[in-house]
Input
Amino acid sequence: MEGLEIRPRDRDAILQALGSGVVPRVGQQYIQVGRAGELAALVRDIDRVADGGSALRLVIGEYGAGKTFFLHLVRSIALERRLVTAHADLNPDRRLHATGGQARALYQELTANLATRSRPDGNAMPSLVERFVATALTEATQLAQPPSVVIAARLEVLSEYVGGYDFAQVISAYWRGHDTGDELLKQDAVRWLRGEFSTRTDARHALGVRTIVDDATVYDHLKLLAIFCRLAGFAGLLVVLDEMVNLYKLGSGRARAANYEQILRILNDTLGQAEGIGFIMAGTPDFFLDTRKGLYSYPALEGRLAENPYATGGLVDYSGPILRLGNLTPEDLYLLLQKVRDVDAGGRPGDAAVMPDEGVVAFMQRCSDRVGDAYFRTPRSSIKAFVSLLAVLDQNQGVRWNDLLGGLELEEEQNPDLEPLSGDDAASDDDDELVAFRL
Amino acid sequence: MGAEAVVAGRTLDGLVYVGRDLGPVIERSYWLDIEPSLIDPTLSVADSPHGDLDYAWPLAYERLTAGQRAAYLDWLGGGRQDPHIGTAYVELFAAGLERRALADRLRSSAASDDLDPIMRELTRLLELYKDQGQSRRLQSLVDVLRAPLLEERIDDVEPPMERRGWDSPLELRLGLGVRAVRGEPLPAEWALSWARCSRDLWLRTPAQRCPIEFDELFGLRYQQHYPKGLKLKELKQRITVEHHPVNAGLGNPVRWVSKLPDIIGAAHIVNPLRRLAESCTDELDAYSRFLGRQPDSKDDLRALALLPRELLLSRGSERLDELRGIVSQLAVAEHVLLRAETVIAPLIGPSGKLAKKDAVGLARLLASLEAGIEPDARFGGDMPTPGGSLVLFRLSADAAGAPTPEYSAAAALLYMAVAVATADDTVSADEEHLLRAHVLDTPGLEQDERARLVAYLKWLLVQPPSLRGISSRVAQIQGGQRDDVAAALVAIAGADGIVTPSEVRVLTKLFSAMGLAESHLYTQLHAMTVDPSDRPVTVRVARPGDPEYALPQAAPEANIVLNRTLITARLAETATVSALLAGIFAGDEPSAAPLVETEGALGLDHPHYEFLRRLAERAVWTRAEVESVAADLRLLPDGALETINEVAFESVGAPIWHGEDPLEVDASVFREMTS
Output
């Protein structure tokens, strides 16, 4: 990556992640290949959110097209642009709309994965709250006013929104807990913000509020959280939802419709009143296109998702809510492997020529022989193997690349979407996993 | 002979023997001593006829009862016209003429002069009583009398078109015989005469019910099969006419033998002409049966549609002329799009619809006029419906009347493709272009089929197809072709760059009808809509079968061939991305929101700066230690950590700490910040 030195820490993180088959948490920018238009579109979205606007994108791509990698990169960009991000995979127990606690479970997952630039790995709720309180304290000192008054005044704006009053109460409770050294109160406040209270009674006992985050108010609380992020000095909130195909797989038509209605609500909001919040949802083509079970089955969404009729004959319009990711081609993989090699060499392309370009091609050929087209369609295994290969070359100065290709082992990937869905499938709790590995 | 006589009050106008004492011609007769036809006026006659005369032998006036004589005389007196008179009475009368013509003529010149009136009378009687049993003997009497005359003037003999009685007409036999002798081929009118009159052919109903059409068709077919005429061969057997006299007084049969051969029953005539005639009646069968049901509808288009093409062309009919007028528009245009009523109005039945057989008939009728119609029920299409439209198009005269498998498959594909293209209610120019391309590129189609397909497309675009009964159309497409069809359909849907839900809905149905996996559809749709600039549109997927040229086998090691152009393009794109990302991650832009209003160093207030300075003293901190430092400074630990990292990002583009518990601090970043 020209003009960007790779920090050794980032280099190790990237290689370690790729070597174990997951998307790197940092430094995706070093290995991004192509997708200029798509990324530019999402950077515009992020900037709009940072300017107090809102956005919704549906990222549609096949299994193996690199949706999750793309989302991670976008999330990194958002963090870099001083947004707070929250991400979660949907699964049967985590939905946009539900009546049995599944929507609250999604909210819990999102807030548990709340990330800032300093805390890209999540769990940033306390940081967020304390950033807010800290700025309020500074202001209180300058204005020579009691902090509680300043906090209340700053949170005033929240009360205009659904659930905003109790939200403000909880933030105040956190400050009281800090002020009085009541760690339990602080913890309860964070627990409330993370949607971990399951009954109103408990919440009233602990925090004196009458409401909790429940299935019906998840979206309202995300909006409150977004405003709060801005109050705390961040640019806004980006909510990233992956594996939307799980909505498509819901057995009940009514449940699907309710979830799609929620998407419609979000879409309408992002075109209008929502502030400082962006949504990115990723799913497979069938989730989008199926006219019986997919988004196309929900008539009200049809018009909203309609594509620009002028984007024809080779013109591409990235301004609609739909963003399509094409499958990887062998050429993409070739460039990607080159990038990985360059990362391995410390960001200096061409340096440490342990693996020349023809070596990359030979490696791809070898993969192709083993697993056929899957080597570039679902490239996780290929990349894993490539990183291992580089590691061996790094550590054994005398070994040449062509000595190693013969012993290459490659696992076949399976599309988890093609497997029957078991009801209690919790998928991978660690969201950074590209794919839950099932053979 | 010509004199009038009055017998028992009835006036007889001649042609009978009246009187007594006229002996029979054969003098020695065991059972007769008087001329049997002689009317003896002295015999008693009843006032009114009674008693039938069915059979009598010997047949003689004198042996009749008084009542029978009254009946006979009444008939004679009434001008010999009563059509209900018994057969025997007519024969009794003929017996007199027979005697006069056969026996008396040999002896008296007066009798010779009577031959003409006798022939006239016999011919009249034959005509009058042709449907009754006696006509055979009357016929042979006439024949035996006129045979020498006919043979003498053989070239004036006209071919007879009607057979009287059992035997083939004498004229026909003579006509055939003389041509066989002269070695002439059989002229068409004589062949027809044979077909109509020969005893060896029984013409089926169509020839009787539609004689004009039969004659015309037979003539045409005869010309087609035997442009020079059927060759005749001479046989040994001579034409013979034998007459068994009615008059019991005349004795032995009379026989006339011609010098011409009798070939009417010869196999070389019977077999080919019978075959020809039968094929003609077959051709007219449908038409004839239609007329049998509706005798007054010769001009109905339904009836005309059943006529053989050649007959239709020469046929004058108001309805047909209307149709010709419509079809004549094709002289200037390949296709004409019409309101269906314009053409089908005369055929719409009481149900308000066009019956399938009528639709087929119409299509056939139009084909005779060298015009095709779409939709055409014969080609698997729908039926034109009142209120709908139809397309007429130019068709060659010898166009097939049934679809080939290639056509059926192409039409089915076209149907589905238009269903997809019209799913969103509009057919864009791109879509239409692609549809046309499909028609023109379909391999293995005849010129007429292609023209039909273009017309079909035109019709489908006006009258968008429904998906009812789609499975029958899908059945036209071979299993192996379905993937290609699917690809073509997806290409059509995406031709305008937009795939609408309604298009997807139609595609879903078509895919399931073709037994293809739905996931397949989504994959294809997705692949097509991603970055359309890269991809040419697939009209028809290349097939591995029947290659026109053998391609050299690719060398096995050259499996992975990277597209250099694509790599260059991707590299350029990647450079753009890198520049974009470098701009973002370099962190060199100023913070939009001032974090903390301060007067301390690095833009931090005193407690935060102090917090930062103290943390920088050590590389690793536990969470508890961090919290105690924060507590000392009356800071919230997480908020303070966030703040100092933010400053680090802003100033040097890297975090000063990371991790949770333990917390790692990067002293080099601190030095960089403070330097």
The two ends of chain B are 163 Å apart (CA to CA).
